[in-house]
Amino acid sequence: MSEPDGPDEPDGLDRLRERLAAELAARGEWPERSPWIRRAVEALPRHLFAPDRLWRWDGSAYVPLDRSADPGGWAAEVYAGPYDPAVTQVTGGRATSSLSCQAVVVDMLDSLKVEPGHRVLELGTGTGWNAALLAHRTGPGGRVTSVEVDAEPAAQACARLKETGTTGAEVAVHVGDGAAGWPGGAPWDRVIATYAVDEIPWTWVAQTRPGGRIVAPWGRLGHVALTVAADGRSASGWLQGLAAFMPARGTDDGRTWRQIRADGAPGRTGPFPRDVRELRNGHLLFAARVLLPDVRVLPGAAGDGTAWLHDGASSWAVLATGDDGTATAHQGGPRRLADELAGAWRWWLAADRPEVYDFGMTVEPHHQHVWCRDPHTGRVPVEGGRPGYAVRRGRSRPVR
C-alpha cells in the first residue's frame, strides 16, 4: 500500500513521479548508454514546466483542466503514463502544443547523443522542459538555443527556465520559424526538433557541422537520427522509433475523411485480401506511410477490425474484417485507396516485414528519400504527398 501524500504534496506529485520512473524502468525505457537522462529528469521534473491549465480529451473535445480547481487531476494528467503527453495548447479545437510523453522525450535525447560542451539548437521550445534537460547535459561550457514560433509559449518557457535556474548563459529562447533554424549560432553540434515535418529542411543540415547529429520527428510517425556527411553535402541515418508527433504549425492536412465522404462520390464494395486488425501493427503502418505518403490510414480501436483511409482530397475507403475473418473494402473517389494499401502491404510482406528500425533516410539539398536496410540499394519506391496516420511508439531498437 502506498503512503498518503504529505502536507507539501497535496496533488500527489512525488508519488506520481516515482510511479512513472518505475514504469519506464520496468519497460526498459531508461537508456543504458545515456544514464545522464534519468538524472536530468529527476533534477528537472516535468511538472515544473507544465502550465496551470492543461487540456483533457473527453471523447469528443478538449476540455480545460485547471490546477487551481483540480490539483490532483492536473498532476495525474502531467504524469499519466510513459506514452501519454499532456496537451498544453488548443487552437480551433485542435491540440497544437503539448508536454511530450516522457518515454519519447527520453528516447529522442538518447538518439541525439549530446555531450557536455555541445552547442545545441532546439526547434520547438514548447514548455521549455526539453531545453532544460539539454542544458543539464551540455553544462556551463555548452549552449542551448531554442526557437519557438508562438510568442506566448516562448515567454512562458523563458519564465519557467528562469525559475528552474536554466537561463542566462545556458539557454536562449527566440521567437521564429523553426524551419529556418537559427543561423546566428551555427554551426551546431546537435539539432533536435520537437514537432513533425514532412521533409527535413535543408537549413537544418546546412547549419549543423560535419559529423553533427540531427534528430527530428518525420511524418508524425517516427523520429530519425541523421549524421551530416564530412563534406556537409548530405545527411543520412536510421529511424529510431515510432511515435505520435504534432505537425509543424500551419501544416495543411487537407480535407477530413468525413468531408470527403460527404461529397457523395459513389463507392464500390469488394473483398480485401488482409485481416484489417493487423493494421494495429505500427511497423506495417510505418511502411504504408513510406510507400503511400499522401494516404492517411486510421485504424479502429484495439480489437476492432475496421480502418478508414483518405488522401486529404477526394478519395476515401473503409475496411472491415467480419467475425468470420473475411475482410471487405468500400471505397470511392478517383483513386482506389484500398487497392493501393493492399499493394503496399504486399511490398512489406515481400520485404520480410521490416520494422521501423530497418528504415533510414538520406537528405540532400533538393531531395530526400527513404531506404530500407541499405542506404545504397534499399531505396523504397514512393510517391510524393502528405504523411500517414500517427501511432503510439514502439521500443526495443538497435543502438545506432
Automatic annotation (TrEMBL):
CDD domains: AdoMet_MTases. The keyword S-adenosyl-L-methionine applies. It comes from the Bacteria. GO terms for cellular component: cytoplasm. Belongs to the methyltransferase superfamily. L-isoaspartyl/D-aspartyl protein methyltransferase family. GO terms for biological process: methylation. Its EC number is 2.1.1.77. It is found in: Cytoplasm. One of its GO terms (molecular function) is protein-L-isoaspartate (D-aspartate) O-methyltransferase activity. It comes from Streptomyces carminius. This is Protein-L-isoaspartate O-methyltransferase. Its main location: cytoplasm. SUPFAM superfamilies: S-adenosyl-L-methionine-dependent methyltransferases. It holds the Pfam family PCMT. Keywords: Cytoplasm, Methyltransferase, S-adenosyl-L-methionine, Transferase. InterPro entries: PCMT, SAM-dependent_MTases_sf.
